[in-house]
Amino acid sequence: MERYYNPEVETASREELDRIQTERLIEQVNHVYNNVPLYRQRMDEAGVKPEDIKCLDDIRKLPFTSKQDLRDTYPYGMFAVPMKDVTRIHASSGTTGKQIVVGYTDGDLDIWDTCCARQLVATGATSEDKVHVSYGYGLFTGGLGLHGGSQKLGCTTIPVSSGNTARQLTIMQDFGSTILGATPSYAMYLGESAAKAGIDTSKLPLKVGIFGAEPWTEEMRQSIEKSLNIKAYDIYGLTEICGPGVAYECSQQKGMHVNEDHFIIEIINPETGEPVPDGTKGEIVFSSITKKAFPLLRFRTKDIGVITHEKCACGRTFVRMSKPLGRVDDMLIVRGVNLFPSQIEAVLLQENQSPNYQIIVDRSGSLDSIEVDIEMNEDNFSDKPSDIIGMEKALENKFKSALGIKPKVKLVSPDTIPRSEGKAVRVVDKRHVYENK
Ligand code: DLL
């Protein structure tokens, strides 16, 4: 039988959900108007006053929020409560200088934990479970997010964090982990490593995986389910909205239910900003309607997806979103780090390298690899292999300190990177991480 963490709201009627969302949206609009200068200014410019928001459709009168707005107000410009009320800070994965800093009050953390607890229960978890959290702990929201949900549900929480694969496997065996939280690529790696170490995963108590933070395909799901002998669930979220737990899969695994009592989802045409009907692909936009410290209205995620309000056999009435089907921008997620080609370009510029470059992302087994091919220019041209290797290593280190990940750098002869007639093809992603839908 299907179990819910908050049955009243997870299975509430559409009318009831509309009522909750409308009430909370109105309150949130007042909160941001009174406490976030950027919102007050944007709403004044658009000629919208908080009292103009009376029903859910009125959300369209409100301005969008972009990642750029969050960068422009770095670090605390979007915070809507005094810092003394902010009890936790997280930041988007990725790079120095361009991080998005988000804050939570105690109440915000409690809601976040609830959202993650709902996901756990949707996979069948109870307080008897031992939740092995292999998402990174730290500014990244994955580790502490799932941790909070697990603890709230009363599970035995094992805060392993990421890395040290041999130790992860030992803990899994000796501590008896029953649920694993990790990025899907790390879960794949754990499965491969278990096989190499001769561990028979069918003998382990592990039964469920909760995987997200990066795109993954149905093929990956099947492969992880087989190698770890578990059932794998998808969980979606983003730092700006809270972290993991924005949307979660149920027993039916036909899309992810959005925690609609806390977040309003819209799908828009990314060019016009106009809403598109259910079943039509568009950019996913979220408003957080209960968050006090870092409330966002109509945040453009740049993820592409579709939603459906069709009834789900699990009994939940929350709208379902598809897996992200792509991105509106060119953001890559490589080994869990969000990365923009423009950040690679900035390092090249700083190092006086040629602007002719190409980024090649690939995956062998479960490990992402990233290579940056750069044409040599007049200043650094050399045909001495030892010089070239030295320059490549130096650049690799520059990337590591600027981006947090170390790509392989290959200096190539001038005029060898293919030129294109339209937009330069900066990224070749051979992993095919999005489903071709
Ligand atoms: O990845 C939060 C998270 C942690 C979600 C753990 C799930 C589990 P960010 O680092 O801000 O936050 O990255 C957010 O990652 O806009 C999507 O592009 C992508 N993403 C997140 N979950 C999924 C998923 C966390 N299930 C960005 N499938 C988002 C595909 C996902 N992409």
Structure characterization notes:
This protein has eleven helices and 21 strands. By secondary structure, it is an alpha/beta fold. Strands 4-3-5-6-7-8-9-14-13 form a nine-stranded mixed beta sheet, with helices on both faces. The protein has a four-stranded antiparallel beta sheet with strand order 10-11-12-15. A hairpin with a 6-residue loop joins strand 8 and strand 9. It is globular. The relative contact order is 0.12. The model has no long low-confidence stretch (mean pLDDT 94). Bound molecules: 5'-O-[hydroxy(phenylacetyl)phosphoryl]adenosine. 5'-O-[hydroxy(phenylacetyl)phosphoryl]adenosine (DLL) binds next to helix 6, strand 7, strand 8 and strand 12. 5'-O-[hydroxy(phenylacetyl)phosphoryl]adenosine binds next to helix 6, strand 7, strand 8 and strand 12.
Topology at a glance:
Layout: H1 7-10, H2 14-35, H3 37-46, H4 67-72, E1 88-91, E2 101-104, H5 106-122, E3 130-133, H6 141-153, E4 156-158, H7 165-176, E5 179-182, H8 184-196, E6 208-212, H9 218-228, E7 231-238, E8 243-249, E9 256-258, E10 263-268, E11 282-288, E12 299-305, E13 307-308, E14 320-321, E15 326-327, E16 332-334, E17 337-339, H10 341-350, E18 357-364, E19 367-375, H11 385-403, E20 408-412, E21 427-429
Parallel strand pairs: 3-4, 3-5, 5-6, 6-7, 18-21, 19-20
Antiparallel strand pairs: 1-2, 7-8, 8-9, 9-14, 10-11, 11-12, 12-15, 13-14, 16-17, 18-19
Helix pairs in contact: 2-3, 5-6, 7-8, 8-9
The structure holds 5'-O-[hydroxy(phenylacetyl)phosphoryl]adenosine.
